[in-house]
Amino acid sequence: MSDSDGSYNEASSPESEEVSQLRSSSSGGGMNTRSTRRSNAELRSTTGGGYIWEDSIQRPWDIVQEDEGGSLATAIADLVQSNKRKRLFYEQTPLQRGIIRHLILVLDLSSAMADKDMRPSRYQLSLQYAVQFVNEYFEQNPISQLGVIGMKDGIAHLISQLGGNPAEHITAIQALRKDEPAGVPSLQNALEMARGALYHVPSHGTKEVVIIFGALLSCDPGDIHKTILTLKTERIRVRVVGLAAQVAVCKELCKQTNDGDFLSTYGVILNEQHFKELLLSACTPPASTKTEKSAKGKSASELMRMGFPSRIVETTPSFCACHTRLLKGGYLCPRCNVKVCSLPTECPACGLTLILSTHLARSYHHLMPLRNWYEVEWPEAKRSKASSCFGCHKPFAPVPPTISSSGSSTKIRISTTSSGSTATVSHQDKSTATHTSAAGPTGSTGRFRCPTCHRQFCIDCDLFAHEVLHNCPGCEATSPVSRRQNASSSSKAAAAAAPAFTTAPVQV
Amino acid sequence: MNAVDGSAHVPQESYAEELEEELPSLLVIVLDVSPAGWGTESPPISLKEAVASLLVFANSHLALNHSNEIAVLAAHSSTVRFLYPPRQTTSSTDESADGNSTNNNGSQGAKGRVGGLTTEEGADPSLREGSPSSGAAGASMYRQFRVVNEAVVEQLDALLSKTSVADIAQPSNPDVAVETSMVSGALSIALSYINRQTGGGEATSGEDVTAAKRARILLVSVCSDLAAQYVPIMNCIFAAQKMKVPIDICKIGKDTVFLQQAADTTGGVYIHLDHPKGLTQYLMTAFLPDRLLRTHLVLPTQSSIDFRAACFCHKRVVDIGYVCNICLSIFCQPPADRSCAICSTVFDPLELSDLTKQPVLIRPNGQKKKAKKKAKRDEGSATPAPAPAAAAS
Ligand SMILES: [Zn+2]
Ligand SMILES: [Zn+2]
Ligand SMILES: [Zn+2]
Ligand SMILES: [Zn+2]
Ligand SMILES: [Zn+2]
Ligand SMILES: [Zn+2]
């Protein structure tokens, strides 16, 4: 099963990833995905200081403001909202991403992982997150491959081979739970083993290594910088999730292999939640880096012919063509009608690559990202007649009578800033804050509008639509026909066409 | 065997824990009311009968547990509307997009037609009278039932009577009705609604959704052509799978490709009604038990699943497609301009001609010479056939 994925890689040509004209150079990062950006916002990832202990002491009660009635409800609601708001900026350029990925997950199994600064221990928690990572990785990259390597006692252990079956990797990782972390880690050994595992990977796929690194040292047999240079020339990208503190060699490693961008690829965790976020952010297919783009001289992308077989269920068992096993059911090759028992595979009779179309469809939201919705200001909210969220029906906060439907309102929002330090509302600000809260209950309308269909949504639906659904409920509920209708009121046409419809059904 | 279709990633163990307590469940019914589906020459079941059956079903769901909830959505060919709970009357963003059938003549025609679709009697009131909510039964009816029934019938009536002929006409040919309905829109709204009802934004990750409340979607579908909505429907399917919301499909009329995949991926039930007149019985036996009960029941299984996809270029349903290896878009034929229409990658012309070449006939030994000659001639005439093979070797 594990090697069955490789089948349609054979048909590949030397180099396939192409320069994306669409890619904006706005952010320096090679992979400015939503999640990395979110984590960037939260922590010290900007190199210029900003460590959590360097910040002024941050007391949660400082940021809470009572409203006129002495109630905290609005202040709390606003805090919740501003937290959600932080997550609201999404990648909307359809990037060229490496969708067929090959990734090696490197786990630190050294004695540093026995530390109990996370519950129950670094070791157990990182194994637990590794399992989640595997699940999430295959969820987002169903036709990609993964392998797991452990660092223990100064050498690298192969935990599971590069393969496409999540269950295999998970069993292998679960089996580690009984072991104890021991010895020192060796980054070089692990990287060399990962390099070996990725050596035969076809060039149209990405080659990536993700390291969970708990130790502050690496015990290497040779010069690790040579290994880093080899990785760079072989275009293997390395991401590191540090559990303790920043390590110079890890920074160098990420910097060299990611085109100088270590900010989005090397993260040191702040807490358990942040650990999970950093790790799972590696599940999103990476955008092509500059070196990869410039390395592509010739255009050698190709079209693969694939079959989408349908599943059949038979009353009597018959042999599958791939393993000659007796089975009741399987998939029929759409070209030659041969029965195979599992997908993806190559048809044993005609050589057609057979794949489930659902595998391909999982990545489509990367191709066609949903546009960001913009926040509706009070005057606009007043002008619009919508009183509830189009998606979930939740009624919007009523428009305060003081708002005029023209002009723009000043908007002061109690917000937590990106560095994590809180913009506490000082005494001078207090008067203005209460002033705006008289004008608008929270300062923001809590309405978000899709630029395409102009429907208004609540913040929860905004998050849901961009993070889970990847559809705009409003756009999907508007047919192109009726959009056209709105543009030109075609009452004449309707009257003229009416008889054509009425005749047929009435006779029934 | 099923392990490959991706549904295996969803952990199954958590269901067993839920068995302990009886959690309330939310049922979202999506009713496809596209005129093209119900208005065929001899509909196997009229919309009126279907609505009556659905209301019986909805009431039974409410009767199972006093905290059970229900929502009903109508997917029309041009719009989606909440039938229950009804949207506040002040909201009119959707009104404006519904297509303004202000023209008196047009709406009259539509009304008569809708009556014709639903009942033989013709006029709107019949729809209301026929429903279980009105008449003497109303007085002695459990209040919740009546509220649901009346709201659904009222809203559906309003929706259908407002439909103008132009709303459902095809853009290219105004005399033919579109054969589609906004299924992807209805599913998107249903999922947003479920997201709010089952914990809202706090559980967007999809992990704790099941803890709060169980939800499922029942789609009663009549239209057959959904190829244009392939990507949005697939997005809905994966979102539902992530949220552990099964999508049940009750299919009247011709089979629809992607809905089978929806039921299969999300762990829902797909039934194609052989005898649509017995809709009530189908609903009560196959769709009423919720996810927990279903593990103990023998459910109707799908005999086979159509896993075909729709191409991005013509929205055609294909079983063999050409896939761009950068963005994984599906095309039904190699693009004429040799570049991917989605990611604008330029394909290798050599590889491309490899795909388009015709099969070469292998001749028995005796004719070898002849065949060679023929091949030479082919090469000369610049047929794409054997040339690339020679070039590759
Ligand atoms: Zn087999
Ligand atoms: Zn075949
Ligand atoms: Zn909402
Ligand atoms: Zn929209
Ligand atoms: Zn096409
Ligand atoms: Zn492409």
UniProtKB/TrEMBL annotation, chain A:
Residues 403-426 have a biased composition (Low complexity). Residues 1-43, 403-442 are annotated as: Disordered. Residues 1-14, 433-442 have a biased composition (Polar residues). SUPFAM superfamilies: Cysteine-rich domain (SSF57889), vWA-like (SSF53300). Its main location: nucleus. The keyword Translocase does not apply. Residues 102-253 form the VWFA domain. Keywords: DNA damage, DNA repair, Metal-binding, Nucleus, Transcription, Transcription regulation, Zinc, Zinc-finger. Component of the general transcription and DNA repair factor IIH (TFIIH) core complex, which is involved in general and transcription-coupled nucleotide excision repair (NER) of damaged DNA and, when complexed to TFIIK, in RNA transcription by RNA polymerase II. InterPro entries: C1-like_sf, Ssl1-like, TFIIH_C1-like_dom, TFIIH_SSL1/p44, VWF_A, vWFA_dom_sf, Znf_C2H2_type, Znf_RING/FYVE/PHD. This is General transcription and DNA repair factor IIH. Belongs to the GTF2H2 family. It is found in: Nucleus. It holds the Pfam family Ssl1. Residues 448-470 form the C2H2-type domain.
From TrEMBL, chain B:
Residues 86-135, 361-393 are annotated as: Disordered. Signal peptide: none annotated. Residues 366-375 have a biased composition (Basic residues). It is found in: Nucleus. Pfam families: Tfb4 (PF03850). Keywords: DNA damage, DNA repair, Metal-binding, Nucleus, Transcription, Transcription regulation, Zinc, Zinc-finger. Gene3D superfamilies: von Willebrand factor, type A domain. Residues 87-108 have a biased composition (Polar residues). Residues 382-393 have a biased composition (Low complexity). Its main location: nucleus. Belongs to the TFB4 family. Component of the general transcription and DNA repair factor IIH (TFIIH) core complex, which is involved in general and transcription-coupled nucleotide excision repair (NER) of damaged DNA and, when complexed to TFIIK, in RNA transcription by RNA polymerase II. In NER, TFIIH acts by opening DNA around the lesion to allow the excision of the damaged oligonucleotide and its replacement by a new DNA fragment. In transcription, TFIIH has an essential role in transcription initiation. Component of the 7-subunit TFIIH core complex composed of XPB/SSL2, XPD/RAD3, SSL1, TFB1, TFB2, TFB4 and TFB5, which is active in NER. The core complex associates with the 3-subunit CTD-kinase module TFIIK composed of CCL1, KIN28 and TFB3 to form the 10-subunit holoenzyme (holo-TFIIH) active in transcription. This is General transcription and DNA repair factor IIH subunit TFB4. It comes from Myxozyma melibiosi.
